[in-house]
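Holo model, flavin-adenine dinucleotide. Inputs:
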Amino acid sequence: MAEPLKPKERVKIPRQAMPEQPALARAHNFQEVNLGLQVVAAEHEAQRCLTCSDPKCVQGCPVGVKIRDFVELVLSGDYLQAAAKIREDNILPAVTGRVCPQENQCEGACVLGNRFSPLAIGNLERFVADYERATGQVGLPTLAPPTGKKVAIVGSGPAGLSCAGDLAIQGHKVTVFEALHEIGGVLLYGIPEFRLPKDIVRQEVDNMRKLGIDFQTNVVIGKTVTVDELFDEEGFHAVFVATGAGLPRFLNLPGEHLGGVYSANEFLTRVNLMKAYDPSHYDEPIYDCRGRNVAVVGGGNTAMDAIRSALRLGAKNAYVIYRRGEEEMPARREELHHAQDEGVQFLTLHNPIEFLGDARGYLRAVRLTRMALGEPDASGRRSSAPVPDSEFELPLDVVIIAVGTGANPLVQSTTPDLRLNKWGYIIADEESLRTSKRGVFAGGDIVSGSATVILAMGAGRKAARSIHQFLCDGAW
Amino acid sequence: MFPIVQARFLSPDVKQFRIEAPRIARKRKAGQFVIVRLHEYGERIPLTISDSDESDGTITLVVQGIGKTTRLMNQLEAGDAVLDLVGPLGEPSHVDRFGTVVVIGGGVGTAIAYPTAVAMKQAGNRVISILGARTAELLILEQEVRATSDELHLLTDDGSRGERGFVTQKLQELLDGGTEVNLVLAIGPVPMMKAVADVTRPRAIKTIVSLNPIMVDGTGMCGGCRVQVGGASKFACVDGPEFDAHAVDFQILMQRNSLYKEQERAALARFEADPTPDREHVAHCHLEQQHPAAGPRAGVREGGECRG
Ligand SMILES: Cc1cc2nc3c(=O)[nH]c(=O)nc-3n(C[C@H](O)[C@H](O)[C@H](O)COP(=O)(O)OP(=O)(O)OC[C@H]3O[C@@H](n4cnc5c(N)ncnc54)[C@H](O)[C@@H]3O)c2cc1C
Ligand SMILES: Cc1cc2nc3c(=O)[nH]c(=O)nc-3n(C[C@H](O)[C@H](O)[C@H](O)COP(=O)(O)OP(=O)(O)OC[C@H]3O[C@@H](n4cnc5c(N)ncnc54)[C@H](O)[C@@H]3O)c2cc1C
Ligand code: FES
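Output:
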């Protein structure tokens, strides 16, 4: 247990650094980069909290985690209680502690940040969640008596999982349908092992199995079974669509069919879901990156994950090609810095215009143009435009396209009465998450477009409340 | 876990499986496929649904052992189980009353073309089938195809069964002889499909091919299966696998299909040297009763449940 300090003393404590694997070593393995705070560091960090009466961090959190309260529990050494406190609002603390963009959320709002470094909320969250996992004492909630109602959840990403958990607690019979052979959505096939160990996701899913949730992998809703059949033939009373934004976007540039040109989804799926980084045990192949030149096009988390994976697969040169500047990159700052430390080279203000191949149809180079920043565009980011006569060739063996994804269409195309927006995302009421079809709710990336784990989780919880209401009163 | 209830060789390298997958058996249409993963360390490979039986909840797959995964699969027997099986994927064949339809199957392509031939026949078409293989023992499903065809032509490269020659020669002969053909469906090795397209192109006969690019998820999520059709990029797993043969860029397909040649060769060599580890990863099911008398769930796995 750590002594509470006076505010003046609190601000004198420096933000506790997250211990990391050394950059040069970790650039060659798939083990987790961040090692987690030790108890002493966690106590020091918790002591920095000003315990504001009106905590801004809580407002900064998309799901309103009671941050001040859990940090106080850390201070009193009650780590399991601290984890339970987070779980009241966030069922995946070991995940969000690792992957939330804290700098734009809780930590961005922390008043310490006005003059000092903000409280390391994400690291503390991870600390208590890991402690809880290590003890194996995840407090399973008590379940309400069975209601006899059946709910189908389509998609097992954070939105689907959190909705499933909440509904099971309320006594409903929940079945989660997943198209792939493993549960977890992007947490599993997208975010790499070195940032989010898959055992964490698996353990959370096992906990949910204990709540009586039935997970059915290898079921593609819209193909194996349609939404209408879920109601009419399989007896479900409500359906939550949480299929994510998994459709890869390409650049539509010449040469995109060349061998060595990947979508980030394909590259990351091969590496993470299919474990192509471990060829002595797993069969799924991936282009041999050893000693090769590899680039990713894009500046988000996906781009960082892809290029850092390529580096770990042995790339000689690993480049990020991004059409705007570093400031404009949407990736989490920590990922950006980790990538830089590991030796990734940044070609900001560059854009590809053509992929060039050899006679066998393999990529050999990319033609780039330099870009210049202009005025802020609709999204508030500064747009960029090509600099005339600035083209050049960069020799490349592999290029990974990470310029965003679109709505996964298989549910929509087989459920004609679901209303969609012009990009093919499902339209759902902001509060109730009801769609245009009675009994069908939708949330997460399939409604918002690509967003974040915490927002998807928040949507899942919101949907659970609304579905519970619907199952109780039948009103639509 | 998907129990194999029947397995038999159709030719030395081609094996036919009946596998329990009731949801898929109920849903699938001609031209659709599944993605299979044999065990926890395995890759995901696409296989066409050759047939299905809704009453006992099984689907039929026909597998040609060409590399590590398909050769491992062809070592499986009734009572073994496939870990993952998902489908039906892809767009069904466009079946209509076209008139006269020529169905061309090369090698294992015969098994892929067979369900569509059946559907074409049922839709009231006159079906002329042309099956080709290197040699007699590699010809498969002859009886089945004969039963669904108004005319059947067999060709082998060495003349050991049927006529000597290539399927394209027979097609050319039919066309030159004045047979009026409204649609050609050609499924087999890429060079064969390309050659068929070249025969029908000058006569502007609508020709459909089923493409076999390398796939991962099979649901449109990775783009690895992209093919060039009419200058546009299409995902074979959701937009296909059948496309207009005259618009397909076969060159790109062949190049993309050889992307992992080295890894494939190495994997096969390792497997041939010692298949034991892989075979040990395969799960087994007790088949409680003799199929097909068994109910909708014939298999129960030790320590787990077999689910179709
Ligand atoms: C590489 C990468 C890195 C990221 N990094 C971060 C990060 O650091 N921090 C952060 O907050 N966010 C990050 N994100 C974004 C975040 O992962 C997503 O916003 C979040 O996962 C969305 O959750 P979801 O539940 O809506 O959908 P998803 O996680 O996409 O899950 C949808 C699931 O539905 C399944 N599915 C789709 N169609 C069907 C169907 N027809 N039938 C059955 N199942 C279906 C899919 O297979 C998938 O498993 C990252 C995304 C990617 C791709
Ligand atoms: C829609 C579709 C339907 C198919 N139906 C059948 C069928 O009914 N019966 C049958 O025997 N074969 C079928 N195939 C081909 C079959 O999927 C490949 O033969 C199999 O994947 C080879 O795997 P392998 O490990 O045995 O051989 P490998 O040595 O790994 O590969 C041999 C060749 O098979 C192709 N291949 C490899 N991996 C994949 C993959 N993941 N996806 C697709 N192709 C791959 C490549 O061209 C490769 O060069 C189909 C393919 C597609 C796309
Ligand atoms: S196999 Fe992944 S998109 Fe077709």
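The interface with chain A takes residues 23-24, 27, 37, 41-44, 68-69, 83-89, 216-217, 219-224, 226, 228, 233, 238, 251-252, 255-256, 258-260, 262-264, 267, 307 of chain B (CB under 8 Å). The mean pLDDT of chain B is 89.
Archived with the compound record.
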